[in-house]
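Box 3.1 A note on notation
Throughout this textbook, protein chains are presented in two layers. The first layer is the amino acid sequence; the second is a token string describing backbone geometry. Keep the layers aligned when reading.
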Amino acid sequence: AALAIHRRMTEDELRHAVGDRVYDAFAPDGRLYNHDAEDPDGMILLGETPHGEEVQFSRRAAESDLVVYVNINLVSMDGGHKSTATGLSGYTGLRHHHNVHTMQRSRSFMDQENSALHASNWRMGKIIRDAGVKIFQIETTVNNNTFGREGPLALLQKREWEWSTRDRLQFLGMKHGLDAMPTKAKRKIFSSWQAPYALTSVQAGEVEAVHEVTTANVYKQHLVPVEGQTDVLTMGLPYICPYNVNSIMNPILVMCLGLGYFFNLYKGKPLVREDGVLIMSHPTPWEFHPVHHPSYIDFFEQVLADTTNPVEIEKKYEKQFAEDEWYIHLYRNSYAYHGVHPFYMWYWGSHALQHLGRVIVVGGDPAAVRRLGFTPASTLQDALEIASDVVGPQPTVTHIKNPPILMADVT
């Protein structure tokens, strides 16, 4: 499992990902396992790019006759050389592109042609290839069937103005039920939902040739033409992001999902103008999963209490967290994200922080929102009034609705 410095997958998660037949064939004798980016004997340096970027790689993969890589390209950021140059690397290699300088120059990191993140991974990919590592890449794309065409959540696939009276009543019932439910029970329900996605394409072969076709298929499904930028961009954030599967959506991940992923779902120009306002809604609880996100807790309590400036954070704290022996132990032996991971989540939103005039969170824990450096608001109306201090009393407003996943092609 090419996880870079993400937390190790549990046995149940691995079984779910590969299926019973593959799991039962390979797991019992140890041939199905998680990548360990901190194994001193398991990682090697393959060389450096012309930009001085060290290419750190899994020894097991580097010494294999053939590496067969398979994934799902859910968004256009995924796949290509990034799959292995990042997925089978460690901190020594990742630090060359998972940094503030790179992320602020990725406009956006969903648009590979204008992404410094991808440029770095492609340079590393060439070093991997030149080192003799043969990679057979299998990339897949899926449709946008997040909640099913039929069934209890099918109404969430529809646009609100398409809802029938029955849909509206069902939605109100779900909302009131969730409002009355304990948080732990809500999370269990949310985490149990498995989207009935279906494959839309499969590409296999040489990395770059495969990825060109895959990206075209993703763009065909996701790109939505938009004319001009807006003064205020609004978005509702879901309960899930790439880093809280079977876990808790902590405040740092709220920032990463909104200012990192959703903000960067564009080609050309951001949906919101420079010095505009981003309004996002999320409960943003001051809560963390102690097993999955231990370094996040310290990042939130110590680092963000000192500064929210990504450049200062990187310079002052990154090395300490990245090399902390306890965090490394938890990453290797428990199910914790690497000590440096919350830094990367913060850097993921650094382009948005640089671009926006203000960030407002509707419905979030006020103390947690302020710790992030954002402005809390209790309602959308309050948020729009706060935004008027920045963009004036009659701003243009654009709302990005997700799901389904989309990418704005802004001209």
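The chain has three domains: 35-144+196-223, 147-194, 227-410. The mean pLDDT is 97.
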